[in-house]
Design a protein that fits this description.
Elements (H helix, E strand, L loop, with lengths): L4 E6 L5 E7 L7 E5 L10 E6 L5 H5 L15 H19 L4 E6 L1 H4 L8 E5 L11 H13 L4 E3 L11 H9 L6 E3 H16 L23 H15 L10
Parallel strand pairs: 3-4, 3-5, 5-6
Antiparallel strand pairs: 1-2, 2-4, 7-8
Length: 246
C-alpha cells in the first residue's frame, strides 16, 4: 500500500512543484507542511510535502519541471512565497484543521507564522562551521545581484548528516542532490542565518542532544525520540484556545 500520493502542483511564478501528501486512514486532525515522516499520518496528522524551488525533482525532473527551473536556482524571497503557497494549499485540502509548519536546516530558518497553529524548526541554518572570508562574502553578495543563478561549489558531506552511515551513503548517491549552490541562494542562506542568530529568536533549548545535522535520521533511538516529541507537541496544540509557544 502506498503511504502517500504524488502530484505536480503549480506554485508561485507558475513553477511546477513535485509534492507528496501523506493522509491518515481516518479523518485528519491536523496537517503539517514538511518533507518527510509517514509516521505522522499513523497518528492522524496529515503531511503535505514538496521539493523546494531549486532542489529535488522540482529542479531536476526532466519531464515535469518548469522550463526555467534548475538546481540551486532559488532565493529566500521566492522560498518564502512558496511556503505561503504550500500553507494555503494545505488549508484548502484539509479544511479547518490546524496547520503546522516544520522546517529543517535551511527550511528551519525559512519560517513564517502567518495563519499557523505552530512552527517546528530543527537544525536551523545559522552559521558556517568554517566561515568564508568576509571579503569573499562581500564579493559574493554583490555578485549575486548581477548573476543570482550562477552556481558555485557548496559541498555537504554525507557523513556529517547522521551517525547512521547508511544515511550518509544514500545522500552521497542520491541523483537529486548536487554539491552546488547559486550565488543568490547561498548569500541569502548565510545572511539569513546570521540575522536569525542576532535578532530572530529569543529562546533555544539548553539541553540539546549531541546529534548530527539530521536528527530525524539519527540512530540509537534519537530519530524516534524526535518524531515522538514533535508529534506530541502538535497534539498538545490542537485546541484553538491554546496559543502555541513558538
Amino acid at each position: 500500500m502506498t503511504a502517500f500520493s504524488e502530484s505536480w502542483l503549480v506554485g508561485p511564478q507558475r513553477t511546477q512543484f513535485y509534492t507528496r501528501t501523506y493522509c491518515p486512514a481516518s479523518t485528519a486532525k491536523a496537517v503539517v507542511v514538511f518533507h518527510v515522516f509517514p509516521a505522522w499520518s499513523a497518528r492522524d496528522i496529515a503531511v503535505f510535502a514538496y521539493d523546494q524551488r531549486g532542489f529535488g525533482r522540482t529542479a531536476l525532473d526532466s519531464e515535469m519541471k518548469s522550463k526555467d527551473s534548475s538546481y540551486a536556482k532559488t532565493s529566500w524571497k521566492e522560498q518564502l512565497e512558496d511556503i505561503e503557497w504550500a500553507i494555503n494549499h494545505a488549508k484548502s485540502e484539509f479544511g479547518s484543521v490546524p496547520v503546522f509548519l516544520y522546517g529543517h536546516s535551511m527550511g528551519g530558518a525559512l519560517e513564517t507564522i502567518t495563519g499557523l497553529a505552530g512552527v517546528i524548526a530543527t537544525a536551523s541554518l545559522i552559521l558556517q562551521t568554517k566561515p568564508a572570508a568576509k571579503a569573499a562574502r562581500w564579493i559574493g553578495g554583490k555578485a549575486s545581484l548581477l548573476a543570482p543563478s550562477l552556481t558555485i561549489p557548496a559541498e555537504v558531506k554525507g557523513q556529517d548528516l547522521s551517525h547512521d552511515g547508511a544515511v550518509g551513503d544514500a545522500y552521497s548517491k542520491d541523483p537529486m542532490v548536487k554539491q552546488v549552490g547559486s550565488l543568490r541562494g547561498v548569500s541569502d542562506m548565510l545572511d539569513g542565518g546570521e540575522h536569525l542568530l542576532r535578532t530572530d529568536y529569543t529562546r533555544w533549548p539548553t539541553d540539546l542532544p549531541g546529534g548530527y545535522h539530521e536528527l530525524h535520521n539519527e540512530p540509537d533511538g534519537v530519530k524516534e525520540k524526535l518524531i515522538e516529541e514533535c508529534i506530541t507537541w502538535v497534539e498538545a496544540h490542537l485546541s484553538p484556545n491554546i496559543s502555541p509557544k513558538l
